[in-house]
């Protein structure tokens, strides 16, 4: 059995844990060693904190080839602030686990990168490309031909039309919907319930139906 460490904690870390537990119910795949977390010391949902998030701790586990990592510190609040932390850890890409919930329906003509998490009841159409460290939350629909670049984030129930592109780090909020062929700019944030009809500029903050820009992501 492979071993896994979740980098993060309450929030997205526990969501990833939940998916791992569901994978294990169907097919015992992962032994969860625990979390790396800078703030917590007590166990999270029954799993210990095995260290702080730093290179020294990580290197100790990299020496054990059966240990994999999942980096969960990517969200609308954390955004690319935490990206440098991920890179500082220098974890080889093949040591990041890709987690796919057993209820997700994924076309065999889809490509999925490393360190990505696909949550319950997600549907991913044919000829899609899902990059590295992408998070796709429960019940989201990814239309055929869509391309989700590295670090992009799709919150629950979002609906991505065919051939849509989420550029690096683009965030799509809960229940948001996009017209086909649009692109969401680098590290842009589109709020809950937005209806995106046109391309979203890089770093734009968008809300509403039709989606309009209300600001810029710092
Ligand atoms: C878009 C978003 C990032 C804006 O957050 P923010 O920068 O803190 O913006 P504010 O809350 O200050 O709101 C600014 C204005 O936009 C409006 N607004 C914010 N989010 C909105 C949304 N999703 N739809 C419509 N209007 C919205 C606010 O009412 C406010 O309007 P006002 O100036 O007339 O009062 C945030 O509201 C959002 O939707 N985040 C996504 C959350 C999500 O998907 N979470 C996943 C589940 S956990």
Question: What does it look like?
Answer:
The protein is α/β, with parallel strands linked by helices and 218 residues long. The chain contains 3 helices and 23 strands. It has an 8-stranded mixed sheet with strand order 5-8-11-14-17-20-22-23, covered by helices on one side. Strands 7-10-13-16-19 form a 5-stranded parallel sheet, with no helix packed on it. Strands 3-2-1-4 form a 4-stranded parallel sheet, sandwiched between helices. The chain is globular. The structure holds coenzyme A. Coenzyme A (COA) is lined by residues 76, 155-156, 173-174, 189, 191-194, 205, 207-208, 214. It holds the Pfam family PglD_N. This is Acetyltransferase. Belongs to the transferase hexapeptide repeat family.
